[in-house]
Design a protein that fits this description.
2 copies of one chain form a homodimer.
Chain A (H helix, E strand, L loop, with lengths): L3 E7 L13 E6 L2 E7 L3 H7 L7 E5 L5 H4 L2 H10 L6 E6 L2 H12 L7 E6 L5 E5 L3 E7 L7 E7 L5 E2 L1 H7 L6 H5 L4 E2 L5 E2 L1 H4 E2 L6 E5 L9 H4 L4 E5 L7 H7 L4 H11 L3 E5 L9 H8 L5 E3 L5 E3 L1
Parallel strand pairs in A: 3-4, 4-5, 5-6, 14-15, 15-16, 16-17
Antiparallel strand pairs in A: 1-2, 1-18, 2-3, 7-8, 8-9, 9-14, 10-13, 11-12
Chain lengths: 304, 304
């Protein structure tokens, strides 16, 4: 199976702490690297990780709080100093464009690559990236400012050929691809052998939902339904539920309810407040509702 | 003796590397904390150090390359989130003001403290800070863009009273301070006892010169003459002297010559290129010219 991996660069909230960097992670799908959020220090974490710095071509920004984007200018500047020539695509709320353009004009005058800003509306559900094998969809979260989650979904591969059936009906090799992609086979005597008899269904595409910085948000369930993994805001424990409501963040319970309602495969908790010396209390709280839960931590890589 | 300490938060050049953070340090003089430069990740380093985050009231920025100022916005934002109310003074090249104002208007809308921007001209030698016991003077360095060094100089204390002499001449206690600050004593019989006979000279003020990002720059010698410690650009070794000239940086030899010519007490090398796996080659090169040299490193604290 092709690689589909998430590497956590930072999973703390608000400000960097001695324990956590602020939000950033890298999603690798079939050899392509995508960065999601870029808090201060992201490039530091990235260069300590095994992730190939220069292979990141797309950066997705969920919202314009500093702990999710203060590392962006430094990344762009360092890409320049390190001799990057490939275009870099920034997918972010449209509001960021004028600010980032001014900052780049001031600080990054001699870049030898272009920064392609691709703004989106965080209040809408939108396909923000699409290629042959992957779609990234932004969807609205419930936060103090406009804020988006991102769903990374592999496109299903073509169906698998049933070699025994193909041989039995005399399908020539040059016709395999057409049949895998949905075609029927017409034998020399005119008999039509339907596609379904010659193939086994493709693997469904895997999917990963990034839901950082949101209050409990049932409206996103239809979008993230069936995700193999959900990364979810878990700033607080249920003991601090009032604080969570006030700041439009989630408790471990909120995150676990969401994973259960979405029928997710796995839940990864993140965006931790610095107030919990031991985050296992968050893990235990979530696991009472949704068993297959793990804690994010810096430099953790998980396979979807 | 009152505290006069330098704590290195970052001493790498250009971009953060697995080995070094970019430029930042904290100068503590008599209980007051001053930050010099603020590269990306400075607040991360600061919270890992023993330096009291909230006690920093003044930040000095040498020039507007990202590795010296990309951490500033994050620091300001985090001060806000952590409930700061005391004004924060930013001393930086005037050119920074409009950019920083716009960034703050965009990212830091609800600060409960004021950021007082105090611009200076990096091409001039200027007193940028002055209080009862300390003066900070900016002076021009030789870099690709306008760039300043900073000289921290303690003001001399008043002279020390010679208690034995004071008793001998019958000086009353209530008159001590006047005499320490330069006065003569007139005895009841009209005899004038001169100041020098009643006191020993004050300790000369200690001084620290920050000379980061500069080619060899003899024009600054008169300003930093006699500094107890000089922190100097040492991006390259003499083997890479061409590169140093090209980028307006110094070699270890340039740094050591400067320290020798200034008659410095000590030299601290910093702003290292990532190209040297072992910086001891820089240290050895400098020590051939100026013996009392050390290497900067993250979290090192030295006393002046």
């Amino acid at each position: 199976m092709e690689k589909f991996e998430i590497t956590i660069l930072g999973c703390g909230s608000a400000t960097p702490s001695p324990k956590h960097y602020t939000s950033s992670q890298v999603v690798e799908v079939r050899g392509k690297l995508f960065m999601v959020d870029c808090g201060e220090g992201t490039q530091i974490q990235l260069r300590r990780s095994r992730v190939a710095f220069a292979r990141i071509n797309h950066i997705f920004i969920s919202h314009l709080h500093g702990d999710h984007c203060f590392g962006l200018l430094g990344m762009i500047s360092s890409f320049g100093l390190l001799g990057r020539t490939a275009p870099l695509y920034i997918h972010a709320p449209q509001e960021l464009e004028p600010m980032l353009s001014q900052e780049m004009a001031f600080y990054c005058r001699d870049l030898e690559f272009t920064v392609e800003f691709q703004g989106f509306d965080p209040a809408a559900t939108t396909v923000v990236y699409d290629d042959r094998s992957l779609t990234v969809t932004s969807f609205p979260l419930r936060h103090r400012v406009p804020c988006a989650g991102f769903l990374f979904r592999e496109k299903p591969t073509s169906d698998h050929l049933d070699r025994a059936a193909a041989d039995f009906y005399g399908v020539p090799q040059w016709d395999y691809n057409r049949i895998k992609e949905g075609g029927d086979f017409t034998a020399p005597d005119g008999t039509v052998v339907p596609h379904d008899r010659l193939t086994k269904p493709a693997d469904p595409g895997r999917s990963y939902a990034y839901c950082c910085d949101t209050a409990y948000n049932p409206s996103m369930i239809p979008v993230i339904k069936g995700a193999d993994m959900i990364y979810h805001d878990c700033t607080y424990s249920e003991d601090d539920a009032d604080r969570a409501r006030k700041h439009f963040h989630s408790t471990a319970t909120d995150a676990a309810r969401t994973a259960a309602e979405a029928g997710a495969g796995k839940l990864m908790l993140g965006h931790f407040s610095a107030r919990y010396p031991d985050e296992n209390i968050l893990l235990e709280e979530a696991q009472q509702i949704f068993k297959d839960t793990i804690l994010a931590k810096e430099n953790l890589t998980v396979t979807i």
